[in-house]
Amino acid sequence: MKASELRAILHEGERTVLGTCIVSPSTKWPGLITGCGLDFVFIDTEHIALNRETVSWMCRTYTSMGLPPLVRIPTQDPNDATVVLDDGAAGVIVPYVERPEVVRSMAGATKLRPLKGERARRALSGEDLEPELQTYIETHNAGHILLTNIESVPAMENLDDILAEKGLDCVLIGPHDLSTSLGVPEQYDHPRFLEACAFILGKARAAGIGAGIHHWLSPEKQVQFVDMGANLLIHKADAIFLSEGLRNEVSELRNLLGQEALGHHTGEVNI
């Protein structure tokens, strides 16, 4: 899938696209990922220590495999958005967005490239571009996807204004931060959390904007978010699959060997 195709699907809602979070930069990973039936990959640089060269290698590799890489940047700085696009990202995920002006500045970084400075500011304020320049800008940025994390009560309160910003392609729920902001941390079955998800996802789809969530629940529990309107699901992460699989099989081996399970922390992943 090309980035432009993924972007169109998000707006049109013709089907639900599936991805996972890739934590490992191992050169072994792409070969393992390629046959898993994914539509895209999510690379997180907000919570995961990945340097620029590594992220660029990952982006260009997954792009060549037909898996558009969506990269979450660590800040709301437009310069960080332009960096990951230069490094091969198909989409930029902006963390913890609560105000529409953040979306506006990020739209400038992702949808008006290579305009910069005063010219970009005037265009974001509504000034028309020359027809030839407008066509060039639209063509140049056709494959750039802008996503914003919606993960707090203030973000929900400002959601209509956020969704109204030109250039936004998808909102993405961050379950851990959203549940915490709602006062029910990590209680993903709590009515308050589920009502908030339905509100966010429904609002986004009604506005013609993609609606997504990244979660580590079981597949049967994640389908409920599609029923609420989600058309993008980020399912778990490579680190979670490794941890779960290894833990379960080591436990099985110890049982077969007649050994007691060792006491250990099961680990948490809140990406």
Description of the structure:
The chain has one domain (3-256): Phosphoenolpyruvate-binding domains (TIM Barrel). The protein is built from 13 helices and 8 strands. The chain has helices spanning 3-12, 29-33, 52-64, 78-86, 100-111, 117-124, 131-140, 153-157, 159-163, 175-181, 191-206, 219-228, 238-256; strands spanning 17-21, 40-44, 69-72, 91-94, 145-150, 170-173, 210-215, 232-237. It has an 8-stranded parallel β-barrel, surrounded by 7 helices. Helix 4 (78-86) packs parallel to helix 5 (100-111) and helix 5 (100-111) packs across helix 6.
What secondary-structure arrangement, pairings included, does this model have?
Elements: H1 3-12, E1 17-21, H2 29-33, E2 40-44, H3 52-64, E3 69-72, H4 78-86, E4 91-94, H5 100-111, H6 117-124, H7 131-140, E5 145-150, H8 153-157, H9 159-163, E6 170-173, H10 175-181, H11 191-206, E7 210-215, H12 219-228, E8 232-237, H13 238-256
Parallel strand pairs: 1-2, 1-8, 2-3, 3-4, 4-5, 5-6, 6-7, 7-8
In short:
The chain is an alpha/beta fold and 271 residues long. It contains 13 helices and 8 strands. The mean pLDDT is 93.
Proportion in β-strands: 5-15%
**H/E series:** HEHEHEHEHHHEHHEHHEHEH
The helix-and-strand class reads: alpha/beta
Give the N-to-C terminal Cα separation: 25 Å
Q: What does the radius of gyration come to?
A: 19 Å
**Total domains:** 1
Lateral arrangement of strands in the main beta sheet: 1-2-3-4-5-6-7-8
Number of strands: 8
Mean pLDDT: 93
- Unreliable stretches (pLDDT < 50, length at least 5) are none
The CATH topology: TIM Barrel
- CATH class bucket: Alpha Beta
User: What does the main sheet amount to?
Assistant: 8 strands, parallel, barrel
Task: Give helix % range.
Answer: 40-55%
User: How would you name the CATH homologous superfamily?
Assistant: Phosphoenolpyruvate-binding domains
Q: Count of helical segments?
A: 13
